[in-house]
Amino acid sequence: MPKEIISKKPVSLPEVVTIFNKRKKTGELDYLQKVALDHAQKSSKLTGKQARTLIIKLMKEFELSEQIAIYIVNFMPETIDELRVFLQDASRVYSTDELQKILGLLKSK
Asked: Cα dist. 99→34, 40, 76, 84 in Å?
């Protein structure tokens, strides 16, 4: 019997690792969940808690949408050019100083 969807919300890859690890403790993961967990573990550079804290900071300090903040945390860009890719759909244009501050915040984690 399929599981019921209680709610939907975007989460970062480190948060996916946390969710699946909790789920693994209460029961076995199916094949797709195991593949997703493996991918998330290999791709994650932070813990779930660090990722959520960083997402909230990006949203508050730089007025980013949750989705854009999650993309940034998932990929952890290292240059302004890489960061600009994620900000193309942002509601405003960011100055070079703001981009440097975002990168500084990412590097501090």
From this structure: 36, 26, 13, 8
CA distances, 109 to each of 18, 26, 33 (Å) = 18, 30, 27
**Host domain of residue 33:** 10-109
Contact call for residues 97 and 91 (beta carbons, < 8 A): no
100 found inside a domain = yes
> Has residue 1 got a pLDDT over 70?
no
Residue entry with tokens 């501050």: 101
Give the 3-state secondary structure of residue 1.
coil
pLDDT tens per residue across span 73-102: 999 999 999 999 999 999 899 999 999 999
Residue 22 lies in a domain: yes
